[in-house]
Amino acid sequence: MNPVSFLTQMIRIAIPYLFAASGGVVAERAGIVSLTLEGFMLSGAFAAVLGTNYSGSPWIGVLCGILGGLIFSMIHAVATIRYRADQVVVGVAINLLAIGVTRFFLKLFFASSSNSPRVTGFGGNINAAGFDNPLLWLGLLVAPVMAFVIYKTPFGLRVRAVGEHPEAAESVGVSVKRVRYAAVALSGMLAALGGVYLALDQHQFTDQMTAGRGFIAISAVIFGRWDPLRAAAACLLFAAAETLQIQLQGNHAIPSQFIEMIPYALTIIALAGVVGRAVPPAALGRVED
Amino acid sequence: MSASSLPGEAKPTFAAAPWRERAEEALIPPLVALLVALICGDLLILSYGQSPAAVYRLLLEGTWGNAYGFGQVLYKATTLAFTGLAVSFGLRAGLFNIGGESQLAAGGFAAALMGLALPIGTSLIFALPLCMIAAGLAGGVVGSVPAYLKTRFGAHEVIVTIMLNFIVLALLNWFIAGHLHVPETLHTPEIHAGVLPRLADIDTRFHGSAANLALIVAVLVATAVWFFLFRTRGGYDLRAVGLQPQAAEYGGISVRRVWMRALTFSGVIAGMGGINYVLGYKHYYEDGFASGAGFLGIAVALVGRNHPFGVIVAAFFFATLSQGGLAIHAFVPKQMMDVLQGVVIIAVATAVPEVRRILRGARKRSDA
Amino acid sequence: MSEREAIRMDGIDKSFGSVRANRGASLEVLPGEIHALVGENGAGKSTLMRMLGGLMKPDAGRIEVNGRDVTGWSTAEAIDGGIGIVHQHFMLVPTLSVAENLVLGCEPKTGGVVLDHKRAADDVRKLSSETGLVIEPERLISDLSVGEAQRVEILKVLFRGARILVLDEPTAVLSPPEVRELWAVLRRLRDKGDTIVLITHRLDEVVEISSTITVMRAGQTVARVKTSETTPAEIARLMVGREVSLSAGKRVQPSGRTGSQPNQGLEVRSLSVIGSRGIRVIDDVSFSVNPGEILGIAGVEGNGQTELIEALAGLRPTFAGEILIDGLEITHRSVAQRHDAGLSHIPEDRHRRGLILEYTIANNLILGVQKYFSTNGVIDRDRVKENAARAITSFDIRPPNALLAARALSGGNQQKVVVAREMGRGFSVLLASQPTRGVDVGAIEFIHQQLLNARAQGKAILLVSAELNEVLALSDRIAVMYRGKFATVMPSAEASEDVLGEYMIGTKKGTAATESMVGANKGRAS
């Protein structure tokens, strides 16, 4: 096992997680439950392939992907913030809706139940590490940038306030609703970018291609205690485990299913507080008024 | 700072017709959702250049209009009834069980194992209860994990059940793929005992459909859940905890104990659902049979307003959508139904608090 | 007035649904003075100040600040107008630092994007030194003591340019040394020219710090006096006042029972309970309530009465001491076990504790006693219905429909459901906490009669009420709670508003903080 190839594969696997987890951090810090990352990712993936297919340019695809994620995140935002619907239920529904919508349009545009035609992505050389893919670099930067936004900008301060003590924020004139809308929109766009990377890297869209990555991203957010850099470290950890499993295929020392379980088991342990409690933002899931 | 905590309050806040209020608040959201689904369906059908009326007619003909279709609806509704009951049971105690899929799969797996362990030819009278107990037990074990973590550590059950879904399904996959599968497949060998008769065996018009006697079990379980919730002391305590935990505590009810039991038993109900596929349809456990049933169970519980009989109706609704998708496949892709599912859930989830707010506001104004 | 008032509020009306929180209330505050706004819980002080601060608009009346008509302004306008409200429950984000909390909403930026932490910290330090409110900008709110957190709240409003400060019950959570620090701060601000309105019900402190006092009661302003021209006793009398209660002036006759009961009532020994901030909210309290006796606990709310009842009921853990019912020790027993031992409890918050609003009247009537209405786990619906019919008739619960959800009833009728339930089952000790709060006059009389009946039947009743008249009318003996201790216990014959008032506001500290086990029967002196 070559350490360089291990590292590069690990990074490529981690990029979608990094995007989605960064989005998840900002939305959850603002107090909105983000089980929806899976749905945002999927919609971003499909929209990107749609856009690239019809325009020939992967950059248009990226824009379309972001738009796709934004649309779904706004549905989530309006339902939970304006109408105060239960955030978990809407989250589950958004994921189901994303699956349904992507399948429907897959059939409509590409006349297929399972995959789209191949599209160009970034970087032609599949054998290269993939470092000619601008999205990869973006993905590596997104977590530090998010950390900067959350801890060093006024917007980030308001996000943190709104997620911990919305009444206090309201009492000094900060619009809790507006901050939350912005945070959810951001999470939609970032998670969608994770899907965009995934689809363009594989050069096509396949039905339900995100395959639970959005949930691994949520796990990373929780395991990382809602901190962007820690969540990113968790993403890398989970990606490393996944890479290990792939590269060890054939070696039955540890069955692949158990490697699959690692992110989820770690998250449960974090929640149970066996090794230090993971305490969510105090107002997470509550939409008052 | 609610007005009701200030002194001097003397007037009642709304009219005194108890059934009407409750009926309004309970039934309007699903009706709203139905309306939204119809409108959305129209749009999607039109985008395919088809006539909504024709497609809806085809949908009804293909589901409720012929015995095979209806049989399939019955079959699908059975599984959804179990997972819907499981979710609604937890919600009545104020707990969100998202682990329906893994609990269902574990239940089916246990039922298959029991079916294999029993000697060939064991009478159904013994085999069925034993398989059901195995299925319920397995589901209950899975459900007891979030129950324990919540009562002991305060870990939120939503995330734990989601995570556990992945873990349990991976575990089951490992069992099957590694040891227990029939070569070239991902399922166990056929069970020796516990096979449930198909509806087709009773009425040949249902020939070909998967509907089986598990449906009766579902109805019985729904009745049992209804009886428990609304006629027993345990149900009184459980609903009290779900509605107002501080008052329940004040009344001497142990909130933690109720949580523990509610989540565990929610798992038991979901686990029992496994008999539909394993005992009634394929007669073996197959990896992935439970796919999607957990999330749809949430939809069913929501539209069914967490009431056991409402859940049955809602299960039929979603089963009809699902089967209907296949029936209209020539005209509109069945994927349309996937979209409608998501739309309906969001519509109902949004409608519930909004309707409550509008109705209560209107009542206040009419009495002021 | 020769000087222009800083604040002038006239004829303010404000209602929430059917509740009239303010009725023609008024307030006049001169600039540069420390003005105390006093009154009992629910007198309307906070509501009045919320309108000043722009959090709500008055239904009628006029508000002037510095001579300018500002009736119905918004929070943003109020902040611009120099009003700063320091809330009772701090509006501070615990996970953020002092500086971050201070600049939230008006953050200093470099280059329009980056939060300028350094400038925020510098601004905080500057303001700190100007006002003498010293606090390190980088400290997290969750690490601060209560007094320090309050300092931050005050800094927060000063940071936004407040010249008129309103402090809502600032001393409720402070220890005496912290209170003195607060006074020093307030005096310094006054000397700087700021105007301060202090909402409180702690009169001993008000007397120390304020120059003028406005007293509110039941939504109205009843008096405006110079502190130097009045006495605490007079203020207390104005505060609690005489209510139009039908039990006014009625005194309970001594029951004449001589303790030959099998029951022994309630006994509490050296009870201590720790509160949320680590301080003793109940501090080494001992007392007993004999069968056939009503022990009334008077005292301004917030002195530990709530926690005492919760500890006795099993809803709050005890730190030290013992609780006995009829001689049986139940200190660490569960709520259900206490019920079995003969304890009943009318809770002070019927919405949160006493009722499940979504349940029917009939179902609420069996909360806590479900097991007596079920056989083999199944609820006996006939018996529940019968029980409900009986309770509705005997307690005149309206509307008389047992299938109505509890949320549909008025406050008085809801309370009657609670009372019917708690007094309808077999008990030997009853905890009655604010039993007639928010209840109409007819129901008050009814509930009082129920309590007296229970007393006549030999039950031991512990009555906690913020209504002094109620305590005086019903109790055989009266205790006053002040800061977690019993300031005094006396036979009701010796008690009066004036006498009790002084204990209630802390100007008189009794020697009878503890008492011997046997009460009135042995004729002890207080």
Query: What structural category do the secondary elements of chain B indicate?
Result: mainly alpha
How many individual helices of chain B?
A: 15
Shape of chain A: globular
What's the CATH topology label of chain A? ABC transporter involved in vitamin B12 uptake, BtuC
- CATH architecture call of chain A: Orthogonal Bundle
**Assembly type of the shown chains?**
heterotrimer
Q: What's the CATH H-level homologous superfamily of chain A?
A: ABC transporter involved in vitamin B12 uptake, BtuC
Compact summary:
The complex is a heterotrimer of chains A (289), B (368) and C (526). By secondary structure, chain A is mainly alpha-helical.
Question: What do you see in this structure?
Answer:
The complex is a heterotrimer of chains A (289), B (368) and C (526). By secondary structure, chain A is mostly helical. In chain A, 71% of the residues lie in helices and 0% in strands. Chain A is built from eleven helices and no strands. The radius of gyration of chain B is 22 Å and the shape is globular. The relative contact order of chain B is 0.20. The N terminus of chain B is likely disordered. Chain C has three domains: 234 residues, P-loop containing nucleotide triphosphate hydrolases (Rossmann fold); 181 residues, 3-Layer(aba) Sandwich (Rossmann fold); 74 residues, no CATH class. Helix content of chain C is 32%, strand content 25%. Chain C is built from 17 helices and 24 strands. Chain C starts with 6 loop residues before the first strand and ends in a 22-residue tail after the last helix. Chains in contact: A-B, A-C, B-C. The interface between B and C is large, with 41 and 57 residues.
What are the SSEs and their pairings?
The complex is a heterotrimer of chains A (289), B (368) and C (526).
Chain A: H1 3-29, H2 37-55, H3 58-82, H4 87-110, H5 134-152, H6 154-164, H7 166-171, H8 176-202, H9 213-223, H10 228-247, H11 256-272
Helix pairs in contact in A: 1-5, 1-6, 1-8, 1-9, 1-10, 2-3, 2-4, 2-8, 2-9, 3-4, 3-8, 5-6, 5-10, 6-8, 9-10, 9-11, 10-11
Chain B: H1 18-47, H2 52-63, H3 67-92, H4 100-117, H5 124-153, H6 157-180, H7 199-202, H8 214-231, H9 233-243, H10 245-250, H11 255-272, H12 274-278, H13 293-303, H14 308-327, H15 335-367
Chain C: E1 7-16, E2 19-29, E3 34-38, H1 45-52, E4 60-65, E5 68-69, H2 75-80, E6 83-86, H3 98-103, E7 109-110, E8 114-115, H4 117-131, H5 146-159, E9 164-168, H6 176-192, E10 195-200, H7 203-209, E11 212-217, E12 220-226, H8 232-240, E13 266-274, E14 280-289, E15 293-298, H9 305-313, E16 320-325, E17 328-329, H10 335-340, E18 343-346, H11 350-354, H12 361-364, E19 374-375, E20 378-379, H13 381-395, H14 411-424, E21 429-433, H15 441-456, E22 460-464, H16 468-474, E23 477-482, E24 485-491, H17 497-504
